[in-house]
Amino acid sequence: MSGNPNITEKKHPADKIKETFEKLKEELKTLGMILGVNNDSTTQPPASSTHSKESTKPDDKNPYHVCLQLFFSGSNSEIFQKDVTADDKKARKAAKAAEKKARAEKSVANKAAAAAGSTQQPQKKPEQAGKNQEKPKQEPKQVVPDSTEKLIEENRQLTKTTEQLAAQMESLVVVEETKTNGDLKSAIKKTTGVEKNVRHVHNVIMPSAVTFDLPKNQVKIVASDSDEGVASEIESTAISQLDDATCLAHIHPAFLTLLAQSELEKIPDVETVCIKFIKAFKEFLRDWTAEREKNQTEASSFGHDLDLAIRPQLAHLTQNGHWPLPFALGNTVRLLKRTIKRVDDQTNAECGETLQNYLEDTLSINFSSAYKAISQLLVRKIRQFKKVVVFDWCPVVNHVLLDAREQIEDMQLTVIDANSSGRGTRHVKSFVDRGYNVKYVTMKGASWASRDGAVLILGCSAIFANGAVAAQKGALASVLTANHYNIPVIVVAEHFKFIDKGQVFQRVALLGRQNIEFIQSDLVTAVVTDLRILGPTSAPAVLKAKALTDMA
Amino acid sequence: MDSNTDIEDLKREFIFTLRRKFPRDSSSSIAIMTVNLIRKIIFRENPRTMADLQRSLTSHCKRLHASERSELIIINIGLMISKLARDEVLQKRGGREPEPLYSLWRDDDETMERLKNADMKKIRKDLQASIKELSTEIESSRECIASQSTELLFNNDIVMVHSLATSKTMHSFLTHAVKSGRKHRVIDVVDEEEHLETAPDFVTPIELFEVASRMPETSKVVLVAAAYFPDGSCLVPAGGHQIALLAKRHCVPVYVLAPFYKLCPFFMTDPASLHSFRSNTLPFDMSANSAGHVDCLHPAFDALQSDLVTLFVSNTSCIIPSHVNRLKEDYYHSQDIADF
Asked: Where is this region: Disordered (chain A) (predicted)?
């Protein structure tokens, strides 16, 4: 027995390790109990024996193997019959927490592995190994030593299985990265020894041989249609630094331009963001289709591959899910993804064509036609109110105002601006350029403007399912003064600005530091959409009509 | 004639001082200047009877006010002094002032006649003394208001204030609270970007458009009154109306610092006449195109209704808005108000 002299030599220094392993083993047993693993694994020797073997070959026997073995053995009935103590309950709670985390990781891996068609089963094992690392300590138990030969065999088997699994995981990761050119970092970092990557939990040194480390810059978005923000699925990873050029190599330059523009705060409102995004996407699509033609890949997987390819781009735009996309843009992207999935044409070129046409249509439907429809509906109303008050910049409102001014000669406009030389000056400019008169007032004079005006027209970023309106900061104050002087408040919103959520209190990507205020539905008189004029609480009807609700 | 020209000179001097100062002097210093001016005028004019005194006071005050429309304090002071004179006369006569309740029935025409012809010489010294008292009271009003801050602001309060930079009363109000050991956070709503840097240390400056998003975390709002009226409404610096409306929506109490000399006995029918529209707020590069087309409003005041104000903090005590009507009786005589 080759192991024996080693055992006797390393008895003393290995004592501590022995204890550790005992504890680990006990925890694993409990885990096994919780997960309901059957105790009937025949070929494997009792788990209790492994720890002595561990001390013999610390180098090439990963504790990973130990964990696996411990888990699958479970035939030590005596150990399974122990009473459930308070510590066990703690262990169970921790196990559940670890389970959840592992489940999250599993779902990421699974969805990423959908293409490779791997089964669920091989992925359970590495996760359980991950779970094992977070158990609190338990009382050590008595261990019965066993013959070392069997142990050596078992270890060899385990090594093989582990290596196979690891290889599978790697291949899964590799499949996704074929499209991108960036540095490929394996999702799994393997370590060989106990010394490395040791985590301390409650003063018990738990070796973590296999760590799952989602590479910072290559996070994949969980493909849930309903949620562009990934923050709920993956715990917040660090925000990727934009300075590092290598990590940007796989992001299309069109999106990089978009991001740069937003950083410089050149994008004043949601509509511009949407338009720019669609244009950037068209560029990206063109390049991607061309490359696909070059590679002569199958047209049948066009939709699916495009879906996968767009994910890292979007991830980059939203800083890895840290900030969700601006609400209206989220809608657009979601509809886009749905269309992508449904694309089914003969050749790659045709698929590309279809999508380009769809994007063109979106641009025209959502923007130019919508503006016309809204302005038609609203000008009729403005005819009754001669004095119009607006707050801050919105391109739709501007369009409506110019139309109205052309048709109604004696219309008077007052512009309330959030701060001096803010974005309200764009309204003023557009009017003055055409030689119309306009009154301009900063926030200080909002009360006076409302007192003189007959209707307040607001633009918005989004309208939520409960009728709340997301508008620029300062809008709420203007609305309250309007209500005080009893003048109606009309909010203008294209249909894609309706989102199926309650209220979101997070900062949004791509719009710089502009934060949003929420105006409750009871303060708003009417919402003008390109469909019709509605009351604000009818938002769900629009969502249904335009199929903007979650299909998830 | 000499005295007349003297008086005219004095008045002119006064108006010029007011107009020269930009930004505007604090209200209390204006009040004290007015008091001194009126004292000098009375001294020079030397009215013989009460009626003379009243006539001269009203005429001077009206003219002064007409030249500086936004300073209501001038009228207030004039009327206060008139009341002081009446009080002195009454004291001398030893009679009791008829209850305001009964003054509807002007049954004491005789009293009025006597009042009119009362000799000023006897009460002159006393009148001078009471006028001095008045100016001391004006000077001390700031400390009195500041001392009430401990009753209104508590630990862990988040207080939103407006126009901290321009109001010394507000500043002393808050520093008094800070000095007496209260730990609270102050959010100051500032007008312009430049004020953002010069705010004192215990204050977080924000702009007016951010008020709505900060209001949910605020527990108290403190504003300064430019003037307040018998119905409980008041004039606050522009922007105060939105703050008060937001505070009402979030059920946050609004305290208005209002020293007694800002109490106007008249209802303001046309607040628009008070404004001094000063600056053009459009950016410079737009000025070429926008000449003649753009009307920039820059109002000075906002009118707050009485239901938006929780308490007026005066130098004597805190008063609820509905009580202001009664309070004006302390400072003004109803006859003066009626005759104005």
From this structure: 35-63, 95-148
Residues A417 and A528 in one domain: yes
* Helix or strand holding residue A413 (H, E): strand A412-417
* Residue A43 in contact with partner chain B when CB distance is under 8 A: no
Distance from CA of A467 to the nearest CA of B (A): 18
Q: Is A367 strand, coil or helix?
A: helix
Specify the pTM.
0.67
Q: What is the C-alpha to C-alpha distance for residues A501 and A498, in angstroms, rounded to an integer?
A: 9
The CA distance from A454 to A435, in Å, is: 22
Query: Mutating which of B189, B241, B248 best tests the A interface, going by the most A Cβ atoms within 10 A?
Result: B241
Q: What is the DSSP string of B226-253?
A: SEE-TTS-EEEETTHHHHHHHHHHTT--
pLDDT higher than 70, residue A8: no
* Per-residue pLDDT tens digits for A350-406: 777 888 888 888 778 778 888 888 988 888 888 888 899 999 888 889 999 999 988
**Residue A366 DSSP class:** I
Average pLDDT of the residues in B53-66: 83
Total domains in the fold of chain A: 4
Give the range of the structural domain holding residue A194, as residue numbers without chain letter. Answer: 171-234
Claim to verify: residue A317 and residue A418 sit in the same structural domain = no
Report ipTM (2 d.p.).
Answer: 0.86
Interface check B192 vs A, CB under 8 A: yes
Give residues 285 to 324 of B whose Cβ lies within 8 Å of A.
286, 289-290, 293-299, 302
pLDDT at A59: 43
**Does one domain contain both A478 and A423?**
yes
Indicate if A199 and A262 belong to the same structural domain.
Answer: no
Q: Are residues A38 and A120 in the same domain?
A: yes
Query: What is the separation of C-alpha A239 from the centre of its chain, rounded to a whole number of angstroms?
Result: 13
How far is Cα A304 from Cα A287, in angstroms, rounded to an integer? 17
Alpha-carbon torsion (A462, A467, A468, A474), positive or negative: positive
Among the listed residues A497, A499, A492, the one whose alpha carbon sits nearest the alpha carbon of residue A528: A492
Distance CA A462, CA A453 (A): 25
Cα–Cα dist A95/A136, whole Å: 9
- Tell me, yes or no, if A432 comes closer than 8 A to chain B by beta carbon: yes
The CATH number of B3-139+331-339 is 1.20.120
pLDDT digits (tens, 9 = 90+) for A284-327: 888 888 887 787 777 677 777 888 888 877 777 776 556 677 77
Residue by residue, DSSP assigns B65-120 as HHHSTT-THHHHHHHHHHHHHHHHHHHHHTPPPPPTTGGGG---HHHHHHHHT-BH
> Which chain B residues contact residue A442 at CB under 8 A?
208, 281, 298
